Amino acid sequence: MLETMKPKRGRKPVRIDLVELEKLCSLQCTDAEIAGWFGVSTRTIESRRKKPEFADAMQRGRARGRISVRRAQMKMLEGGSGTMGVWLGKQILGQRDVITTELTGSGGGPIQLAIQPDLKRLSDDELRQLRDLARKACPGLTVPEVQPPGTETAESGEAPR
Asked: Which of 48, 70, 139, 146 has the fewest beta carbons under 10 Å from its own?
């Protein structure tokens, strides 16, 4: 009995030269640029990358490209480019610019972080409300009783006004 084979459907696979692929990757070409060069879709490049020989060629090419860029940078550094020296120091050696900022208050003194409220402007009722709020907000805080003006006792050492 003869077996009949169904014809394969779809487009014939495009041959992608791995040497050419490696050269394009060494130029740090994007997947879209590589796909355009070979006349395929980016989806084709992405699916072929799953094959070890294809992925290896891309990795080798990208590594060669990075080495080439680094070599050019080092030549610029050796040629006297101070800017390149600073940039390479930051990139390769992890060097950083350190900026120290010191803030001072008026007259060069410390910065005042809290203001002293003028409680003399508050009425007796407002003072009681403030004391109650302070006790409620900070249960462990000792809030002294506030005597309304003119009601100081003899115990405090002051005579009533």
From this structure: 139
Please measure the distance between the N-terminal and C-terminal CA atoms of the chain and give it in whole angstroms.
127
Q: What residues contact 18, with CB distance under 8 A and at least 6 apart?
A: 53, 54, 57
Q: Are the CB atoms for 65 and 28 separated by under 8 Å?
A: yes
Residue pLDDT, tens place only, 106-150: 888 888 777 778 888 889 899 889 888 888 888 887 766 756 555
- Tokens, residue 108: 């060069």
Can you give the pTM of this predicted structure?
0.51
Helix axes 52-78 and 18-26, enclosed angle (nearest 10): 30
Spatial contact of 160 and 150, defined as CB atoms under 8 Å apart: yes
- In the block, which residue shows the tokens 């990139």? 91
> What is the CA 26 to chain-centroid distance, rounded?
29
How confident is the model at residue 161, as a pLDDT? 43
